[in-house]
Design a protein that fits this description.
Layout: E1 12-16, H1 33-48, E2 51-55, H2 75-82, E3 87-89, H3 96-100, E4 107-110, H4 117-120, H5 133-152, E5 157-160, E6 185-187, H6 189-202, E7 209-213, H7 222-228, E8 234-237, H8 241-248, E9 252-253, H9 263-276, E10 279-282, E11 285-289, E12 298-302, E13 305-306, E14 311-315, H10 317-328, E15 332-336, H11 349-363, E16 367-370, H12 373-381, E17 390-391, H13 395-402, H14 408-411
Parallel strand pairs: 1-2, 1-5, 2-4, 3-4, 5-6, 7-8, 7-15, 8-10, 9-13, 15-16, 16-17
Antiparallel strand pairs: 11-12, 11-14
Helix pairs in contact: 1-2, 8-9, 10-11
Bound molecules: adenosine monophosphate (AMP).
């Protein structure tokens, strides 16, 4: 079922949202992007004449109630966003009566799902090496099903709009779907957009396809790099990862960040790229610093001839031009991870140049997807958010999807996606 085809009139919808918003010590929300992200779905259901049961996690309470992570704090914000009073269920597993009493247009917010260990379904207080662990895991699996069934019993239909947790097989993100038939479970509008965005870079590729992978470590990006080698025409590798590749090829990298245990992997990736006809592009020049600090002394040097005691902090001007060529001629663009230590303004130029090139390519008709906290932060800082095709809201979920892993939250609703 799709949300556009479902008529919510007279129905109660239980919606998994991602209201895991940051709150300060006074319980004030510091960024309500996630609440705003869910609004199209919630408004569609209310406008159709449905009632809403909203469920989410907040933070990592590890299966125990924690007042600091109570969703009660965000009740006024949700109420303002939906322009109506919102009821609160202080115990998400004991909300049947409140759910049953809901009328058309009414909204009930359940307390943080992760106050129950059943939500994540991991046995608590027992180590994986403990001989009793397997039995505890089985017991928890069964408890998780019961918990999901309880949540399902509150509603006529289930909507998952929490892309941020789509890579988790939790009670509210995946298991609950087993208790609804095909016609009464669906992705929310935000989820649909995210899934479509991933489709555009993995399957509906318009060529040339240039992916830009930055960030600090090869080891955390290896799954993505490997999958992308089967998809892209050009793979730009930048950020701290550069120096592992440069060292593997015999270059001098000074004190730049490097994963020595990944040197052979880097060579393997270079070999695979060649074999698959993918152009793997590395920075030719680097801005180096004599300290990891904003006020360090800097100079520009070739990426493979960094002087001793200097470290690579950002791509140099020649690399910005080199990368711009591959980005601005592309029809499909994916960007994850900064080109340098962009948190320090002095070393943000490379990431900024990439962001501008992506905006330019998008204006010329390319499809561009930006994902991962740092690249999103960079696009936002430059006020270019409305000049790229799509900015993903789900860090880990997006990365797993790009690795080619099925997302349990999506598969539970539509196994073909
Ligand atoms: P990741 O979490 O792996 O996506 O990496 C993001 C982090 O990589 C950011 O905090 C950047 O500051 C860092 N980074 C990017 N380039 C470099 C570099 N040349 N040296 C050290 N850290 C870097």
């Amino acid at each position: 079922m799709t949300i556009s085809n479902y008529h919510f009139h007279g129905k109660k919808a239980i919606v998994r949202v991602d209201f895991n918003v940051p709150v300060d010590e006074n319980g004030q929300i510091t960024d309500d992007t996630r609440i705003r992200g869910a609004l199209p779905t919630l408004q569609k259901i209310l406008n159709d004449g449905g009632a809403l049961i909203l469920m989410s996690h907040m933070g990592k309470p590890k299966g125990k109630p924690s007042p600091k992570l109570s969703l009660k704090q965000i009740l006024p914000a949700v109420s303002r966003a939906l322009d109506r009073p919102v009821l609160f269920a202080p115990d998400c597993a004991k909300a049947k009566e409140q759910a049953d009493a809901l009328k058309e247009g009414e909204v009930l917010l359940l307390e943080n799902l992760r106050f129950y260990p059943e939500e994540e379904g991991k046995p608590v207080g027992i180590d994986k090496t403990d001989p009793a662990y397997e039995d505890a895991k089985k017991a928890m699996n069964s408890a998780q099903k019961t918990f999901a069934q309880t949540l399902a019993s509150y509603a006529d239909c289930y909507v998952n709009d929490a892309f941020g947790t789509a890579h988790r097989k939790h009670a509210s993100t995946a298991v609950i779907a087993d208790y609804f038939d095909e016609d009464s479970k669906m992705l929310g509008l935000l989820m649909e957009k995210e899934v479509q965005a991933v489709e555009n870079v993995l399957n509906n590729i318009r060529r040339p396809f240039t992916a830009i992978m930055g960030g600090s470590k090869v080891s955390t990006k290896i799954g993505i790099i490997t999958n992308l080698l089967n998809k892209v025409d050009n793979l730009i590798i930048c950020g701290g990862m550069t120096y592992t590749f440069v060292k593997a090829m015999g270059g001098k990298i000074g004190t730049s960040i490097c994963e020595d245990e990944q040197l052979s992997l880097a060579l393997e990736i270079l070999g695979q790229a060649k074999q698959k006809g993918v152009r793997l592009v590395l920075a030719t020049d680097t801005i180096v610093a004599d300290r990891f600090a904003e006020d360090a002394n800097t100079q520009i040097c070739p990426s493979n001839a960094i002087p001793d005691n200097w470290m690579g902090m950002d791509i140099g001007p020649d690399s910005c031009l080199l990368f711009a060529g591959y980005i601005e001629s592309a029809q499909t663009i994916l960007w994850n991870g900064p080109a340098g230590v962009f948190e320090m303004d002095k070393f943000a130029r490379g990431s900024e140049a990439i962001a501008h090139s992506i905006a330019k390519a998008t204006a010329n008709g390319a499809y561009s997807l930006i994902g991962g906290g740092d690249s999103v932060a960079c696009i936002n800082k430059l006020h270019l958010a409305d000049q790229v095709s799509y900015i993903s809201t789900g860090g880990g979920a997006l990365l797993e999807a790009i690795e080619g892993k099925p997302l349990p939250g999506v598969a539970a609703i539509n196994s073909k996606l």
